[in-house]
Amino acid sequence: IVTRNTGHGIDFSRGNGFDQKDSNYIIIRYLDSGFFLEKDGTAPTEWQKTAAERTAAFKYDVNQLV
After folding, report:
1. What gap in Å lies between CA 38 and CA 59, rounded to an integer?
2. Which pTM does this prediction carry?
C-alpha cells in the first residue's frame, strides 16, 4: 500500500518504495475530481474538497479531456 490514512484524508507524499517517489500517480488514475463531490458540486467535508482540488490540479480531469 502506497498511501496511509492520516485521519485527515489520504497522504500521497509516500512512494511505493521502488520507482515512485510519491503516490501522485494514483491521483491521475482517478481522472474525475467530481468523484469526491456531491451532485451539486459541493464538498461535504474538508478532505473531499482537498481531494477534488488536488485531483483537478493535475489537468487530467475527465471533464477537461472530453
Report:
1. 20
2. 0.58
Does residue 57 carry a pLDDT above 80? yes
Burial environment of residue 34 by CB neighbours within 10 A (0 to 12, 13 to 18, 19 or more)? middle
Query: In Å, what is the CA distance from 60 to each residue of 32, 33, 35, 44, 47?
Result: 8, 9, 13, 23, 20
Residue 13 CA to residue 23 CA, distance in Å, equals: 6
pLDDT at 25: 74
